[in-house]
Amino acid sequence: MSCLCRHRPVPSRSNQILTVRQMRAGEEALIAAGTTVDHLMQVAGRGAAEWVWRVAGPGKVTVLCGPGNNGGDGYVIAEALRERGGTVQVIAACDPATPAARTARALYQGQILGPDAAVRGAVLVDCLFGSGLTRALTAEHAALLRRLAASHDKRIAVDLPSGIESDSGAPLTPDLPQWDLTIALGAWKSAHFLMPACAAMGALRLVEIGVEAIPGAAQVITRPVLNTPAADAHKYRRGLLGVIGGAMPGAALLAARAAQHGGAGYVKLLGAADWAPSDLVVDSGPLGAALQDRRWSALLVGPGLGRSKTAREQLETALDAQVPTVLDADALMLFGAVMAQGHQAGRVLTPHAGEFDVLERAFKLSGLGSKLDRAVELAAHTGAVVVAKGPDTVVTAPDGRVALARRASSWLSTAGTGDVLAGTIASRLATGADPFEAACQGVWLHSEAARLCPPAFTAGQLAEAVQCAYAACL
Predict the structure, then answer these.
(1) For position 361, which CATH number holds?
(2) pLDDT of residue 11
(3) Nearest to residue 325, comparing CAs of 303, 307, 343, 304?
(4) Angle between helical axes of 417-430 and 435-452 (0-180°, round to 10)
(5) 138 in the same domain as 250
(6) Which of 207, 233, 264, 374 could cross-link with 427 by S-S, CB 3.0 to 4.6 Å?
(7) CB 398 within 8 A of CB 347
(8) Range of the domain at 110
């Protein structure tokens, strides 16, 4: 079977997501190659200043500088704005504590005020602490940050908002401000895409400083490049997907509708249905008999399946077919009992938070760490690709690949949208895509479909919009 997708030749360093340790290694590699810390700070700070200027223009900007290199970036930003004719003032929370920060402060030719200064302005730029922070802000620094945030119309965080742990997205300090824009420096960090931090960061922008691609780094899920069917294509070559129904056929019908728009050439509902659209084939015969067909490309089991003995038998039958399979909803609640250790075909698990907890208990996992850490562990123990969905979505593979999605529309918080996601991923899997790639493609299509829908959309509208999202990838 030919796959209706191809890998986009993207500059992977633009999409990589680095841990604090990986970021430091990347910077050290640049320095070892002859770049100075001062030069990197100038590149980062002046790149960030371009974004600040777009927001503030000639309006009054206050830059809050801390003691480390993030504070040094702030002095560079302030000087770049001053040189362009901007109105800028610096609040120094404390004296610079690194050589590069001291150099940047010495190069700044504008006004520097102490932390007690009463200032107001159009834009606050937070350069108090960056991605290396591991402890809570002091009471004085937290109060200063909140006070300045309240006295400015717009707020921009540089690298990360102060008080956020970079690798987990956890707040190290309570009641942190909301930001209109966050400018990542050098590379994306996990916190840019993980809750609760990402919800407070506003728009995201990246300033590159030349860090090369780091082997094994996580990646941002980006728009896939999809193809139109080949000239000699037919429905089976494009992928035959079986959506296994159960006690509540509406959910399976919804997933099948999304799958029809996700690229698969032939979608069948395997199970009884009181009603189905005329263009959806329904096979209400015994599941085992239906799965004897050797042309199956992928299966989806879980939406509306139920948790009865019959449902468990349906799941076991589906897994015994040795076909790439997406497990969602009720199938995830039963999966721990079934296990299917001999299942060799690719699997994709799509748990929400509650289903994730159930899977962790079933596989005797610790449940500790960030959502990213937990998803990596679950993929390793199940041998399946894991799509840990929610306000933040993480995709992990057993071989260690990791991808994080940009924050999607909050209108997705309605019943049935998970069924649409499962159907979309299953459709991509049926086309022949690698399970990890199919999951990432499905997540992107699902998010883009939500963006294209009007507010307060239904899951049915979302399923129809997958077609338009697909068109954006051609």
Answers:
(1) 3.40.1190.20
(2) 41
(3) 343
(4) 140
(5) no
(6) 264
(7) no
(8) 12-216
